Amino acid sequence: MHRTKSITICAIALILGAMALPAGGQYTPAKHAPQATTAAARDWWKNAVIYEIYPRSFQDSNGDGIGDLNGITQRMDYLKELGVDAIWLTPVYPSPQADFGYDISDYKNIDPQYGTLADFDRLVAEAGKRHIRIVMDMVMNHTSDQHKWFIESRSSRTNPYRDWYMWRDGKGETATSKGAPPNNWQSEFGHSAWQWDEKTRQYYYHKFYLQQADLNWNNPKVHQAFKDIIGFWLQRGVGGLRFDAITTLFEDPSDTDENVLLDKSGNPILDAFGEPTVDGLKTEFLPGVHAVMQEMRATMDTFNAASFPGTRVVIGETYVANIAALAEEYGSAQRPEFHLPMDTQLGMLDTLNVAQFRARLLDAETGLNGNTPLFVFDNHDRPRLDMRYGDGVHNSDIQRVISTVLFASRGAALFYYGDEIGMKTTPPTRKEDVKDPVGVTGWPKEKGRDGERTPMQWNASANAGFTPAGVKPWLPVPPTSATVNVQAEEADPNSLLAWYKALIHLKKTNPAFADGTDIMLDPENTKVLSWMRQRDGAPQVVVAVNFTADPQTVNLSAREAGLKAAHLKTLLKSPGGADPASTEAIELAPFGVYIGEVQ
Ligand code: NOJ
Ligand code: CA
Hints:
- The chain has 599 residues and is of the alpha/beta class.
- The chain folds into three domains: 39-144 and 220-251 and 303-490, Glycosidases (TIM Barrel, Alpha-Beta Barrel); 145-214 and 252-285, Alpha-Beta Complex (Oligo-1,6-glucosidase, domain 2); 516-598, Sandwich (Immunoglobulin-like).
- 26% of the residues lie in helices and 15% in strands.
- It has 17 helices and 20 strands.
- The chain has helices at 7-19, 38-43, 69-74, 76-82, 117-129, 148-153, 220-235, 288-301, 323-328, 344-347, 354-366, 385-389, 395-408, 437-442, 486-490, 496-509, 511-515; strands at 49-53, 86-89, 133-139, 142-144, 167-168, 194-197, 202-205, 212-214, 240-244, 313-316, 340-343, 374-376, 412-416, 517-521, 528-534, 541-546, 552-554, 568-573, 586-588, 593-598.
- The strands form five sheets. The chain has an eight-stranded parallel β-barrel. A five-stranded antiparallel beta sheet has the order 14-15-16-20-18. A three-stranded antiparallel beta sheet has the order 5-7-6, with no helix packed on it.
- Helix 13 (395-408) runs parallel beside helix 16 (496-509).
- The longest helix has 16 residues, at 220-235.
- The protein is globular.
- 1-deoxynojirimycin (NOJ) binds next to loops.
């Protein structure tokens, strides 16, 4: 990996960095971005461990109850010790915070709540000193209604920015009536996706909240504006971008209704907001997205210096229907798109089912044309792992199961702050406490996403070390912080945090774990998921994971699947686990995990 550090390399790298730009490019290399040899810099993302931070909730440094960039910088040694290669920050740009940053009003600055551009540069520098890259969120589907482009756009029908957004007449509109919305397209956040704007007497389209107006990606000026924004951040030394809501960039030009889903009696199925559920095919997955991503990837590739600071990774929020659709998100060798489109096929299964896990891992191994999967089980939009996979009794053990699948499979791994200590989903209990627009609109059926965005639990003090005692944090600190916190888990060798660190260490130091192929073992077993990591010239490694609350014994016969020998050297096992004498009798405690090298 990229571990070399010397003044000479830095100087060469600065020159190469500048040379890698197209003529006229004004590359100002970040002083402390990660350094690397060429090959390692190019491939760092292929087995990267990426940590998602929701900046509002990670660490408050100035006592206003809101997490900020300087807070993240203060915690950089913790992240280094955890072993992360990159941090994905959800949006920190200026924003009215209607959707907590996903409504951006200025793409080239930092929201004062989170700090300044100087704070951002310091964050990149401090991360870089520890070989950690910063990945920014890139929201191209929509802007805030307070963005200057939209303010211009809504000011008159002839404004030059009018066609940067999607304006339509109402159905049956007259001089005195706005008519009905142009069609039945629905917002992800509830109700019609069309908002009437009295000033110019037309509707604008918003796939998400009404303060998040959709951009018109048929307008070349929008493309140019984003290429410019991307250059701005890459020049500041960011290690990559995560493209938000990418499947919704385009809409069907016919403007016709979506199909409504019907129940067995032929009645519309109502969604959490009481509206007919639609299939979304007129507003999602339209093919034009591929050309846009090819364009953005090509732009980003021009910033890839031969060495320092290496490949700028292109990550995608790609909730797609199946593995074939995911494979398309990588693009082709001639026209690449994402390096790492998120594989939500596996991680969002939301059920601990061995056969389904095995099938999805196999899909990723065989269905992505040799591309690298990015596994992810958790993020700021979904209830945390306890709610989706836990049984209420063995939650920590179940998280060992999930994290083993995440880190012990071939590919890059993305996880969410607080997973490593087993933070629990803590949804609001009263409507008046809800902050997320989804919960405000959907209460009580849809409580929104506050429950998975509560402050990071650093210690057992009041406010858990997130913000000083006596300050009101923007979301309440869960009572579980008394026992579930970093400080307590750092002191306990059997903690979940210790497990995460050990697994990540293995991913980085064991050659088969780094990029060995995944080969499924014992493929009919419905209680234990077992696989082997295999790489030429390195010892094979077997992984066995008990998906049940009962003890299990597995026999990974040396004959099957090319397993070369029967003796095992333990690399890692869950607390209380046994060291098996051979691959033929691996004993696993309830939800137990065993990882051993074949000798
Ligand atoms: C996906 C983001 O992850 C989510 O938090 C946000 O609300 C929507 N995109 C809209 O930007
Ligand atoms: Ca703060």
